[in-house]
Amino acid sequence: MPLFGNKFSPKKSSPRKSQTLSNLKLGPGEHEKNFGLDYGPVKLTLDQQEFEFDDSEATWISESGGGSNTKEIVKLKKQNQTLTEENNFLKIKIEILLDMVYN
């Protein structure tokens, strides 16, 4: 026994064998059918109101309050925002042109 050596030297463990998660040899279509990998739309329920996430617009749309109306409202709000920005831009353009005419 060494006088100043390492007193604790554990045995080396054997390497672990990698195992598959499932012994079943299933194709991708069968995995989706058996394990439910097709999630569908994301839905959220808050205080008896149901919302669905719309991937194309990246917004939450209320389903309990008439989905078509809320989709139209969201669309109109976006259109209103773009028209307001365009209107502000045109007002600035007019001010610049008037300044150029009078100076």
Characterize the structure shown.
The radius of gyration is 32 Å and the shape is elongated. The chain is an alpha+beta fold and 103 residues long. The chain is 43% helix and 14% strand. It has helices spanning 28-35, 67-102, and strands at residues 43-46, 49-54, 59-62. The N and C termini lie far apart (101 Å). Strands 1-2-3 form a three-stranded antiparallel beta sheet.
In brief:
The protein is an alpha+beta fold.
Distance between the termini: 101 Å
Q: Could you describe the largest sheet, including whether it forms a barrel?
A: 3 strands, antiparallel
Structural class: alpha+beta
Taking all residues together, what is the mean pLDDT? 79
Describe the global form. elongated
From the alpha carbons, calculate the radius of gyration and give it in angstroms: 32 Å
Share of helix among residues? 40-55%
Order of helices and strands: HEEEH
Number of helices: 2
Read across the widest sheet, the strand sequence of neighbours is: 1-2-3
- Total number of beta strands: 3
Strand content: 5-15%
Residue windows where pLDDT falls under 50 for at least 5 positions: none
Task: Describe the protein's topology.
Elements: H1 28-35, E1 43-46, E2 49-54, E3 59-62, H2 67-102
Antiparallel strand pairs: 1-2, 2-3
List keywords for this structure.
103 residues
